[in-house]
Amino acid sequence: MKMAPKLVLYEFVASPPVRVVKMLAKSLNLELELKPVNLMNKEQYNPEYLKVNPTHTVPTLIDNGLIVWDSHAIMIYLMDKYAKNDSMYPKDLVKRAMINKLLFYDASIFDKMIGMMRPIFFGDVKELTDWQKASLVDSYESIERILDGNNFVAGNDVTIADISLVVTLTSANCIVPIDFKKFTKIAAWIKIMESFPFYEPNVVGLKLHAEIVKKFLNE
Ligand SMILES: N[C@@H](CCC(=O)N[C@@H](CS)C(=O)NCC(=O)O)C(=O)O
User: Fold this and answer.
1) Are 210 and 174 in contact, with CB atoms under 8 Å apart?
2) Which residue in 17, 26, 36, 203 has a CA-CA distance of 20 to 30 Å to 212?
3) 67-89 pLDDT tens trace
4) Cβ(59) to ligand 1 under 6 A?
5) How far is the CA of 109 from the centre of ligand 1 (A)?
6) Catalytic status, residue 15
7) CATH number of the 93-218 domain
8) How many whole angstroms from 3 Cα to the centroid of ligand 1?
9) How does residue 4 score in pLDDT terms, banded at 50, 70 and 90?
10) Which of 58, 69, 71, 170 should be mutated for ligand 1, with most atoms under 8 A from CB?
11) What is the mean pLDDT of the chain?
């Protein structure tokens, strides 16, 4: 008899941090029981959901009663609890510090990006300001420098920081297109990331995200 999955993920398919968690779960071969939260219908504000995640965001993971939200915290938890080897998030202090700084950087570009899209998704703003667009390009410049001399963002091995940043970047690309002729290291790295089997959850979600962004920015 098939055992019921014990890992529950509250999700919205287009959400970038949800895709991050799905990619890592796929790479760790973890089965997720997906529970949709329709952000467009403001379901994240349902009182039952607010009990699970008081910050009204997805993703939220529940593992046997333990609630973890924020994709970065979820990735660290899943790696520490379920990874058969630690290559994507090594226990080595120095390697971990290299990854952590990128996860925190991702969280802050993410917040910037989410912050600027919120009034567009949930309010009546139709356009980003020049400053908002420039701040995304500034992030592209930072990532291009981060990739200088490395195959991946934290060195020569793929880690959870690559998962976070590739999802952020490919999502940001729908808002302010990345000039791939200029950002050649980003272009090459995205291609490598796309070649991993665990990249698949980013494909459908990213397409939906692009459609939502287009609809809201062009109305
Ligand atoms: N830093 C968080 C960001 C979570 C987040 O802002 N998620 C968005 C969707 S991409 C959300 O749920 N927004 C709904 C809201 O803010 O009400 C993470 O990495 O999980």
Assistant:
1) yes
2) 26
3) 999 999 999 999 999 999 999 99
4) yes
5) 12
6) yes
7) 1.20.1050.10
8) 30
9) very low
10) 58
11) 92
